[in-house]
């Protein structure tokens, strides 16, 4: 997903930089809205998964502290290790989607000219 969202955003950035006269900005805008929808859905799913992992991590920390069970300390470490990549991936999706909103505004400006 990382490669896809970064590649797509860079492709739109190139289109906006080139600003060729023969560019069909209406078609670009339609495609862009579809892609934004895909990435918003992906972002929502990853938010839910990240929140679930964070919730279970907090529960395992509390259980490990209060119950003093060695297996729970191991579970806590595993959940924390898994939580970090989920947070980083969600961070990427959130920031790239925000940049795509800015691209949307620029495409609208091109269409008005």
Characterization of the model:
There is one protein chain. The protein is built from three helices and no strands. The chain has 113 residues and is mainly alpha-helical. Helix 1 (2-18) runs parallel beside helix 3 (70-112).
What structural class is derived from the secondary structure elements?
Answer: mainly alpha
| Beta-strand residue percentage | under 5%
Tally of contiguous helical segments: 3
How many strand elements?
Answer: 0
Percent helix range? over 70%
- Oligomeric description of these chains: single chain
Distance between the termini: 34 Å
Shape: rod-shaped
Parts with pLDDT < 50 across at least 5 consecutive residues? none
Could you tell me the radius of gyration in angstroms?
Answer: 20 Å
Largest sheet: none
């Amino acid at each position: 997903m990382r490669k896809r969202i970064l590649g797509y955003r860079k492709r739109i950035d190139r289109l906006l930089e080139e600003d060729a006269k023969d560019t069909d900005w209406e078609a670009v805008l339609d495609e862009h809205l579809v892609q934004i929808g895909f990435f918003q859905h992906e972002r929502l799913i990853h938010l839910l998964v990240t929140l679930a992992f964070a919730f279970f991590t907090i529960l395992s920390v509390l259980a490990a502290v209060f119950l003093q069970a060695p297996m729970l300390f191991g579970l806590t470490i595993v959940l924390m290790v898994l939580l970090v990549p989920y947070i980083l991936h969600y961070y990427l999706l959130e920031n790239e989607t925000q940049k795509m909103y800015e691209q949307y505004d620029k495409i609208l400006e091109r269409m008005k000219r």
